[in-house]
Amino acid sequence: MPNIMEFSWLYEGFVYLFLGIITLIISKFIINFLTPYKIDKELIHSDNSALGLTLAGYYLGVIVIYLGAVIGETDYGGVWSEILTQCSIDFAYALFGILTLNLCRVIVDKTILYKFSTTKEIITDHNLGTAAVECGSMIATAFMIAGAIHGEGGFLSALVFFILGQLLLIVFALFHQLITPYDVHDEIEKDNVAAGAYMGFDMVALGIITLHATMGDFVSWSHNLRYFAAYALLGILALTVFQKIATGFFLAGAPLEEEITRDRNMNIAWISGSISIGISSMIFFLL
């Protein structure tokens, strides 16, 4: 008969799975508390697809953050006191991540889509373009937080690298506007879903690169900050260059400005977005 200790990894896994479900449930209560409108009413009675897209990014982000906190833990061999102690630490990091993820919504409203109110666009106008940017930013932020809390470190280092990640997100949004041949804010405010999705996918791609730049053990401020700066800069440059090359090849004969602004062509957003995420994933695993 097999020894129960041989399957301790399975029991530990179920404990973490259960804790993950609890974390996801708590995240719903947190966003309900921090939101000035009734989420369930908007989703069920108003059929607000824009809010649904935003929440999809939020809940996916919560899962990413939780996995960043717990993946890579040591096998404790069925010693329940050590398992529960580590669970409590991981749970605290996950809650920290959820609170900062909610802060991302404010950052998007005030610094990325600053020319209009994201709450008005999503709740009153049901603007899917705005929701796509907010969804992408949520997932990107979750990757940043997951990297910041992954490995050996502390709350201070996690907080610092979360702030750096958000600053990078803001700079990247400005850079996205700079290299895009149309006014991103204007198109999104006019309910252009293609423009919002195009930007939202790029945000997710940035998040994957930033995950690599922030994850791992905290060695020293000088070492980790240098690595973050070098990897983030090279990653963004590589993403931009290879995305332009790949998009030009796969979408040859499709002028970006006309397809997004005039035709509102979602095919451009889907294909360009998948290429961006694919390239950022290759950067993550290969560089």
Number of strands: 0
Q: Helices and strands: which structural class?
A: mainly alpha
Series of secondary-structure elements, N-terminal to C-terminal: HHHHHHHHHHHH
For the record, give the distance between the C-alpha atoms at the N and C termini, rounded to a whole number.
46 Å
% residues in beta strands: under 5%
Structure notes:
This protein has 287 residues and is an all-alpha fold. The chain has one domain. Helices cover 80% and strands 0% of the residues. It has twelve helices and no strands. The protein has helices at 8-34, 39-45, 49-70, 80-112, 118-124, 128-149, 155-179, 184-189, 193-214, 221-250, 256-262, 266-286.
Fold blueprint:
Blueprint: H1 8-34, H2 39-45, H3 49-70, H4 80-112, H5 118-124, H6 128-149, H7 155-179, H8 184-189, H9 193-214, H10 221-250, H11 256-262, H12 266-286
Can you give keywords for this protein?
287 residues, mainly alpha, globular
